[in-house]
Amino acid sequence: MAKRSCFSWPGSLPFMPSCFSFFSQKGLPIKKLWKKHFIGYLVACVTLFALTFLTATVLGPEVTGANLYPGFTLAERIDVGNVISRLESLLFVIFFITVYLKLAMYLSAVSITAAKVMNIKNYKPLSLPFGIIFILLSLTEFNNLNDDSDFYFYGSMVLIVSIDVVLPLFMFAVGVVQRKRKRLPIFPVQASKQKQ
């Protein structure tokens, strides 16, 4: 488990520019978003490192490696004077909220992107069909946890490289070629600079 936690930290770093390119189309200030997202990323890395360190030192490496979620096992052992105990329910609530927010973000990104590809002005009618597809994929994609972990350890590297590296580079190259054909600068001038 500790290996999976440590290797997943850099996996979300290439996702950051694609996330901000999605938000830049909404007219949100990219510099503020980048700073806040990077601070959140650092806080998450420090928290994950602290949790991994605590589980390895308190539970031992054998128990940490054997459990799927050693943080829950660690939270079960917390007992402060019979007042604060059994904090795994709090961790479950935090986990549930995090999964809900990630799924909501993925669903809105897929719906908005599909609406733009199909030239549909309102993306909201697409949310329900894509939500149903998400539910069906979650039920049929993996038969058990072993298939899931095998995919993340062995099969997902091809997807990570193609989606986080190759696809953005290809889209950037296509944009450069299109802007050169139209005799526009490669990097567009921001609206705030045009007004000055």
From TrEMBL:
Keyword match Amino-acid biosynthesis: no
Segments crossing the lipid bilayer: 38-59, 90-114, 126-145, 151-177
Location(s) in or outside the cell: Membrane
InterPro entries with a match to the protein in the record: Spore_GerAB
Keyword line: Germination, Membrane, Transmembrane, Transmembrane helix, Transport
Membrane topology: Multi-pass membrane protein
Entry's Gene Ontology cellular component terms: membrane
Entry superkingdom: Bacteria
Pfam families attached to this UniProt entry: Spore_permease
GO biological process: spore germination
Family: Belongs to the amino acid-polyamine-organocation (APC) superfamily. Spore germination protein (SGP) (TC 2.A.3.9) family.
Listed name of the protein: Uncharacterized protein
Species per Swiss-Prot/TrEMBL record: Salicibibacter kimchii
